[in-house]
């Protein structure tokens, strides 16, 4: 790990290279909320070096691509976009292109970027974000490209507190409380690219949240790949309860939880902790015990069902959402039918479903019985059809109710006079309202509902 002085010298050097008012940074983000949170730190660091913010990559001298490696598709998309930046670099030799995020922690991708993308100056894996100034300094001072080899897989990286954060929303904030994952689900790349689990001290987390709430932030989301296995000077429920004691008008969310770490104490938080939003995202992955076992998930259908029952006993209205993988190696028609049956039985409000994508270096990629793509696609289609019906059914009873909504921003399709927000349960609502409600809690009367969103009108 580099010392503080090395880092400060590097930062000084970059500040001399940056042209005030002219050099700007653009950060492009793929992947999950962890990556969105990391991008806010990459941006914060770049701004602290004197860069301004660019509106597009064409307008930037520093382009950081924060990549995701969870599925093949995410990687190919990032690579194709990085390929397009060749022309930006050709037009302006001062342009520096860095590839950050989870792909930058895969040795074969780093090798590929080094060999086939000569206009990429460096790669920077998620655990080493604080090294950004050093990598830029190497590029400008020594005209050197830097491709750091990822740390040994058993290393527990140090948590860097104090990296500047440039938050992209004024009313919502991500707060990473733990990093990495030790679960090694057999399909998943995350433990390899994000390293071993490590948790921030609760005092750091609490003072960050107090600062945010003091600045008027209305929604705090605690983040971790396996957020409910947080453990430092207290455990996860201890932390949730302490955040619940912070005064202010804000909602608390957390993601992503693992079923094996859901305790009765955590379930109790849903009726005992003020601020905690009535929404639980709890990835199921499959409704077949045989598949769950081969996924190395450490729970079976019975345990998952019992968590749902206990959550609903606490709060019958709680929103439940989940992730499901379709076409995991060895998934038979029977396994898949069991997943559909469980989705029907549980009735999730929303399910994010993914076709299994083999990831190099993970055990499942070498399992012999890979499911043919056309079978996976057909299963996916059936799952989407079923879940669409279930979600629509779940949303229908909300019509006629007036719900408290946090107004997030203008409607994504740009319809004038329409604002988008989320209910306490996390449901998307589009409603007629002036734009100055953005960032506030408002009451919205729900007029219509379909599987994916609610439609409503501002009510007094
Ligand atoms: N840590 C979280 C999120 C992991 S990534 C968790 O444990 O749930 C988000 C989702 O992507 C996972 O829940 C899983 O459904 C999906 N996923 C992960 N690896 C995948 C792969 N190789 N192919 C397809 N989907 C995958
Ligand atoms: Fe991946 Fe499993 Fe860890 Fe989630 S819990 S990040 S799915 S290995
Ligand atoms: Fe993707 Fe890395 Fe998140 S692989 S899903 S960006 S942890």
Short structural description:
Helix 10 runs parallel beside helix 12. The chain is built from 14 helices and 19 strands.
| Approximate shape | globular
**What's the structural domain tally?**
4
The DSSP helix count reads 14
Average pLDDT metric: 96
Describe this structure in words.
The protein is built from 14 helices and 19 strands. It has 460 residues and is of the alpha/beta class. The chain folds into four domains: 4-147, Methylthiotransferase, N-terminal domain (Rossmann fold); 169-277, 2-Layer Sandwich (Transcription Regulator spoIIAA), CATH 3.30.750.210; 289-397, Transcription Regulator spoIIAA (2-Layer Sandwich), CATH 3.30.750.200; 399-458, Nucleic acid-binding proteins (OB fold (Dihydrolipoamide Acetyltransferase, E2P)). The chain has a six-stranded parallel sheet with strand order 2-1-3-4-5-6, sandwiched between helices. Strands 15-16-17-19-18 form a five-stranded mixed barrel. Strands 7-10-11 form a three-stranded parallel sheet, with helices on both faces. Helix 6 (132-142) links the parallel strand 5 and strand 6. The longest helix has 23 residues, at 373-395. Bound molecules: S-adenosyl-L-homocysteine (SAH), iron/sulfur cluster and FE3-S4 cluster (F3S). FE3-S4 cluster binds next to helix 2 and helix 7.
